C-alpha cells in the first residue's frame, strides 16, 4: 500500500447517496482500495428516500 490514495483520489472522501445497493458498493469499493471508515454512517430522509453518508480516509491521514 502506498502513502497516497490511488487514481489521484483525495485522502478524505464523504460518500453520499440513496441508501441502496449502489451506495453500499461504492463504500465497499473504497474499502477494497485501502480506505478506512471514519466515524459512523449518517442517514436522513429527503421525503422520498433514505440518504446515507459515510466518510472514508486513507490510512495515515489524521482526522482533526
Structure description:
With 64 residues, the chain is α+β, with helices and mostly antiparallel strands. The protein is built from one helix and three strands. Strands 1-3-2 form a three-stranded antiparallel beta sheet, with helices on one face. The longest helix has 13 residues, at 21-33. It is elongated and about 40 Å long.
Brief overview, please?
This protein is an alpha+beta fold and 64 residues long.
Low-confidence parts: none
Radius of gyration: 13 Å
Shape: elongated
**Strand order across the largest sheet:** 1-3-2
Distance between the termini: 23 Å
Number of helices: 1
Question: Mean pLDDT, nearest integer?
Answer: 94
Beta-strand share of residues: 35-45%
Would you count the extended β strands for me? 3
Q: List the helices and strands in order.
A: EHEE
Structural class: alpha+beta
Portion of residues in helices?
Answer: 10-25%
Main sheet record:
3 strands, antiparallel
Task: List the topology elements.
Elements: E1 12-18, H1 21-33, E2 36-45, E3 50-57
Notable features of this structure?
single chain, 1 helix, alpha+beta, 64 residues, elongated, three-stranded antiparallel β-sheet, 39% strand
